[in-house]
UniProtKB/TrEMBL annotation:
This is Peptidoglycan bridge formation glycyltransferase FemA/FemB family protein. It holds the Pfam family FemAB. InterPro entries: Acyl_CoA_acyltransferase (IPR016181), FEMABX (IPR003447), PG_Glycine_Bridge_Synth (IPR050644). PROSITE patterns: FEMABX. Belongs to the FemABX family. Keywords: Acyltransferase, Cell shape, Cell wall biogenesis/degradation, Peptidoglycan synthesis, Transferase.
Length: 373
């Protein structure tokens, strides 16, 4: 089987996404509108019967003063990663992007490599010998993923190694935490929460915490406590305009693509979060909380409301997104990992991001520049 790759329309792209049970929110056409510094292009793979069988959202970032681009497919492309010959999929993509002026291609295969149960993660956190999750025996190994990795290496792709500790680096997270919903009732999911989570949800309800859906006009309230969260958790916050653009772009494509939730208590917003949906996959995207009134447990309340709504939408998985891989007690992200583990889900490792240098000189220069940032 050989495939032809060409640029496709947003309508073609979105129709293919709608036919799939799960596609990353970073591989839908509207995600290109969220990233104004990149030039988006939708590409599609066609088989010998002229049927569209795969798609990808490519983000092109220009080099200053040069008509050369870094091509990036975040958590994509959407192809048959189990195919025996990945070259038939990826070689046409590389040729097409080279014609567009790309000097380097970065992609994030949506392929799961390993999974750890909540019990395994809790045991690892408690074990002083365990320094990183990647060194702990997995509950489930996915042999197909390691086969994919071997094939990519043979084709000349290079795995991007994270630059900073804890598994959080530029690009998309390699380690995430997910709660499986498929085949479970909402009562089953609730029973999967640990005792502390269930107790905190009841405490929030008894204290009068009200979780409501917000609109565009509520984004400034979200952003105010998001900035407070960034200062507390030591990350650089995005500007309010980013979230306003994200809201407008994603909801223009699908009204349920992005939602905003706010936890109120006695007239004050204590926590807020955004939720993204594509097919059967739902993500907790951005979260924010104030340091005030933590005793009324607004974070547990808002997450349970979002999980309940995700279930009503038919979600097969609720994705808490990135987690730290570092398990030392002095890691400031460990508390967030403990919070997510309390849902009874599983830690998931993806194959990570991979680079293909189309121009080795420019690719090396970019890597050197990024390492010094």
């Amino acid at each position: 089987m050989s495939y032809r790759l060409e640029a496709i329309t947003r309508r073609q792209h979105l129709a293919f996404v709608a036919s799939q049970p799960s596609v990353s929110h970073m591989q839908v056409p509207s995600w290109g509108d969220v990233k104004p510094d990149w030039r988006p292009e939708s590409v599609g793979w066609f088989d010998e019967g002229d049927r569209l069988v795969g798609v990808g959202l490519v983000l092109l970032r220009p080099l200053p003063k040069l008509k050369r681009y870094l091509a990036y497919l975040p958590e994509g492309p959407v192809i048959d990663w189990a195919a025996p010959d990945l070259g038939q999929w990826l070689e046409p993509m590389l040729a097409h992007l080279k014609e567009l002026g790309a000097f380097s291609v970065k992609m994030g295969p949506p392929v799961v490599a390993r999974r750890w149960s909540a019990e395994a993660v809790k045991a690892a956190i408690a074990d002083p010998r365990a320094r990183q999750l990647r060194d702990v025996e997995a509950t489930v190994d996915e042999p197909r993923a390691f086969d994919v990795a071997d094939r990519l290496r043979r084709m000349g792709w290079q795995r991007t190694e994270p630059r900073d500790e804890g598994g959080f680096a530029a690009g998309q997270p390699r380690y995430v935490f997910q709660v499986p919903f498929a085949g479970r009732s909402l009562e089953d999911i609730q029973q999967g929460l640990n005792q502390q989570w269930r107790r905190n949800i009841k405490k929030a309800e008894k204290a009068g915490v009200k979780v409501v859906r917000g609109g565009y006009e509520d984004l400034p309230a979200f952003h105010e406590i998001y900035v407070e969260t960034a200062e507390r958790d030591r990350f650089i916050p995005r500007p309010l305009s980013y979230f306003q653009g994200m809201w407008t772009a994603l909801r223009a494509e699908d009204p349920d693509r992005m939602r905003l939730y706010l936890a109120h208590h006695e007239g004050e917003v204590l926590a807020a979060a955004t939720m993204l949906t594509v097919g059967e996959h739902v993500w907790y995207s951005y979260g924010a909380s104030t340091s005030r009134k933590r005793e009324v447990q607004p974070n547990n309340a808002i997450q349970w409301r979002m999980m309940s709504d995700a279930y009503e939408l038919g979600a097969g998985v609720y994705d808490f997104r990135g987690i730290t891989d570092a398990l030392e007690e002095d890691n400031h992200l460990l508390g967030l990992l403990r919070f997510k583990v309390g849902t009874g889900g599983q830690a998931v490792e993806y194959l990570g991001e991979w680079d293909y240098p189309l121009n080795k000189v420019l690719h090396k220069a970019l890597a050197l520049y990024m390492s010094r940032r």
